[in-house]
Amino acid sequence: MKIKRILVSQPKPSTPKSPYFDLADKSNVKIDFRPFIQVEAVPAKEFRTQKVNILDHTAVIFTSRTAIDHYFRIAEEMRLTIPDTMKYFCISEATAFYLQKYIVYRKRKIFHSTGKFADLVDVVKKHKDETYLVPLSDIHKQEIPTLLNKAKVKYTKAILYRTVSSDLSDLKDVNYDILVFFSPSGIASLLQNFPNFEQNDTKIASFGPATAKAVKDAGLRLDIQAPMPQAPSMTMALEQFIKKFNKGVK
């Protein structure tokens, strides 16, 4: 059987110019989108048990827009007024611009990087006198504390939101030829929702080494991996696989 249906475990792209839509047209496949994980807020009452005082910090490191949303949410819930002197260090320019939702952008000290956390740490190291707060999910990349410790900057982690599995019960009778994953949490959600999942002919695609490892650790077969030298994006990896696979199927 040729590959005809793909499920991508992320929200549907908001722009009509997404490479996934191009892939669907080019490869004549149907692509559905469904987040396998969702973000849940850590309420102020629970946050207080972490004994983190937000106003003890002079700067904030933001690794995502979600972190920005929950930083300002928790401040509002705790009725804190964030001082105008607070400095913001953002993983990318797009993340930095997102701050406009909450602050007067041009009147604040805002720094941003290229999208890589290692590059952001290089920016942070130029401001070693600051005391940093790092809003995070309960599940976050280990490189964040590792690189900050290595840089010897003063910082505090604040767990302001958590990643939980979505309810996927409505998918139990839906069959896809390829399942596409972008995080170990997505694999965990698959197995939590479908503990008796049998892969059989279903192909699994993963993005990033951590996700690939999670697939293999779960005893599943990894058929498509990105990024790779010949396929730096997931859509390119999918396109190459589909072309080769469907060519060999009558």
What is CATH's topology name of the largest domain? Rossmann fold
Number of helices: 9
Large-scale geometry: elongated
Strand content: 15-25%
- Straight-line distance between termini: 8 Å
Order of helical and strand elements: EHEEHEHEHEHEHEEHEHEH
CATH class categorisation of the largest domain: Alpha Beta
User: Could you tell me the number of beta strands?
Assistant: 11
Counting helices, strands and paired strands, the structural category is alpha/beta
Main sheet makeup: 6 strands, mixed
Assembly of the depicted chains:
single chain
Rg is 21 Å
Just name the CATH architecture of the largest domain: 3-Layer(aba) Sandwich
Query: Mean pLDDT, as a whole number?
Result: 94
Outline the low-pLDDT stretches. none
Fraction of residues in helix: 25-40%
Number of domains: 2
Instruction: Provide the spatial order of strands within the biggest beta sheet.
Output: 3-8-7-4-5-6
Q: How is this structure best summarized?
A:
The protein has 250 residues and is an alpha/beta fold.
Tell me what you see in this structure.
The chain is an alpha/beta fold and 250 residues long. The protein has two domains: 5-36 and 166-247, Rossmann fold (3-Layer(aba) Sandwich), CATH 3.40.50; 40-163, Rossmann fold (3-Layer(aba) Sandwich). 33% of the residues lie in helices and 22% in strands. It is built from nine helices and eleven strands. The protein has helices at residues 19-27, 44-48, 65-77, 93-98, 117-124, 143-151, 184-193, 209-217, 234-247; strands at 5-8, 30-33, 37-41, 59-62, 87-90, 109-112, 131-137, 154-165, 178-181, 203-207, 224-226. It has a six-stranded mixed beta sheet. The relative contact order is 0.16. The mean pLDDT is 94.
